[in-house]
Write a structure and sequence with these properties.
Structural class: alpha+beta
Helix content: 40-55%
Shape: rod-shaped
Strand order of the largest sheet: 2-1-5-4-3
Low-confidence stretches: none
Mean pLDDT: 80
Order of helices and strands: HHHEEHEEEHHHHEHHEEHEEHHEE
Strand content: 15-25%
Radius of gyration: 49 Å
Length: 482
């Protein structure tokens, strides 16, 4: 199939050319339509005025006709033979022209009985018509009325060329055309200036997009108007800021995951080589080294499993299978499941609940993992003899009811500068201490993705009483309230 080269050229036109052409064509069409409408309106007005003039002339002349009944042709010529702008004709009932101001020999004129205005006047009507004159070949307006001379009905007709109206005689039409043309070119000029102004903003946005494509996310488009382009520019700049942040997160992730995987692999490789170099002959040391290898293998397996879980959560656009569950009972069951771990550090765990039942749509397994990660972190990072509370709070906003599941401790808390990043993958407030405790650095990120999959949100705040400690809040929509 052959491609149309003309279509290809049209597609390759820049937006600036298209905008200018479009404005020019629209203005040109508008100009032609407006000019034609104005000319037609002015002509119609001129014809109305011409008809009024003919009515006035006939009203003045008709009373004089009976006084000159014996010599009608001389009377007609005495009135209008000196000007071509006005003509008087008198026709009898047979259509014969008895008097005419423009023709010296009326006997040469055709019978006028077939003329529309003559027929109308002879039948007692006042008729106005416009047609080309058989004498001058110009467009002429005719006005005929019935008159009686010695009891016989005649047709008295006055006429004038349409070109003698105000529209033509005073060059009003030419002046109007000139004025409209001038307005057209002024509007076209302003349209082009506006087009160039808009195009300038579009070119700045194009430049900004090109810079962002190169990775220069600090570039500013500096588009202040029009409002829509300015908003688009700000949106692009915000997007570039977000892309820069995501790029840094990506770099941090690559660096962190490399480090997290390298640590257990190095330990496994090192102790394996030590065993191969002869340490295997020392039973006590070999057992110790193998326990380290086993521990680091478990850690490596945990990191890989968490990475796979996180990857599945991020890529899976489908919602997990969920059923209606009593969020209170399930949360308390999960919370109490960590009491043995808490007892090892003499950490007190309390549930504060004022409700009987609140139902949410949940995938129990995923929810247990999300809440469990939060509770497990609280136990790991709280010092000996601390306290962890589980509480619930109902929120009502715009006919939407949600429940907050609140895990609060009185440990050292999270420094404010870390609050916005703790849900990032591998992000740790205290890197050294986290690794000592065996965490993968992915727990909170996994929890955040799970809660989002439940149409909820996970966030952290400071304790409302101002004391030290951390507060993690899961907020989920309620399907059946208290």
């Amino acid at each position: 199939m052959h491609k149309n080269p003309k279509r290809k050229r049209i597609k390759s036109l820049s937006i600036s050319v298209l905008l200018i052409l479009l404005n020019s064509v629209i203005l040109a069409i508008g100009f032609v339509v407006l000019l034609n409408q104005n000319i037609n309106t002015l002509k119609a007005t001129a014809q109305v005025q011409g008809e009024k003039n003919l009515r006035t002339f006939s009203g003045v002349l008709i009373p004089l006709i009976n006084a000159n009944a014996n010599n009608l042709d001389t009377f007609a010529k005495s009135i209008a033979s000196h000007t071509t702008d006005f003509r008087v004709t008198i026709v009898d009932s047979s259509g014969k022209v008895l008097a005419d101001s423009d023709v010296s020999e009326i006997s040469t004129l055709d019978n006028h009985l077939n003329r529309e205005e003559i027929q109308g006047a002879l039948s007692g009507k006042k008729i106005t018509t416009i047609r080309k004159s058989s004498v001058s070949k110009d467009d002429v307006m005719y006005y005929a009325v019935p008159i009686k001379i010695d009891g016989e009905v005649f047709a008295f007709r006055v006429s004038m060329p349409v070109g003698t109206s105000v529209y033509f005689t005073t060059d009003v039409g030419l002046k109007m055309i000139f004025s409209i043309c001038l307005i057209f070119f002024v509007l076209l000029l302003f349209s082009l200036l506006i087009s160039f102004y808009i195009i300038k903003g579009i070119k700045k946005l194009t430049k900004a997009a090109f810079e962002y494509k190169k990775g220069n996310f600090s570039y500013k488009g500096n588009v202040s108007s029009p409002k829509e382009l300015a908003q688009l520019c700000r949106s692009m700049e915000n997007m570039a800021t977000e892309l820069a942040r995501l790029e840094q997160v990506r770099k941090d992730f690559v660096s962190n995951v490399s480090h997290e995987l390298k640590t257990p692999i190095t330990s496994i490789t090192g102790f394996t080589e030590t065993l191969l170099d002869g340490a295997i002959d020392d039973k006590q040391n070999s057992i110790h080294f193998l326990e380290i290898i086993k521990s680091q293998s478990k850690r490596l397996s945990a990191i890989i499993e968490d990475l796979l879980s996180l990857s599945r959560l991020e890529k899976d656009s489908k919602k997990p299978e969920m059923i209606k569950e009593n969020i209170l009972d399930l949360s308390i069951l999960i919370f109490n499941g960590f009491k043995d771990s808490a007892n090892e550090k003499n950490i007190q765990m309390e549930v504060q609940n004022n409700f009987d039942s609140v139902f949410c749509m949940l995938n129990a397994g995923l929810y247990e993992e999300a809440l469990g990660n939060i509770i497990d972190n609280a136990i790991k990072y709280c010092p000996q003899n601390s306290k962890i509370n589980l509480g619930f709070k109902i929120q009502n906003e715009k006919n939407n009811q949600t429940i907050q599941i609140i895990v609060e401790d009185n440990g050292n808390g999270i420094p404010e500068e870390h609050l916005n990043r703790i849900f990032e993958r591998f992000y740790r407030v205290d890197k050294g201490r986290s690794r000592e405790m065996g965490g993968t650095g992915l727990g909170l990120s996994i929890s955040s993705h799970i809660i989002k999959a439940h149409n909820g949100k996970l966030f952290t705040t400071k304790r409302p009483d101002g004391k030290s400690g951390a507060v993690f809040i899961i907020e989920l929509p309620v399907v059946c309230g208290i």
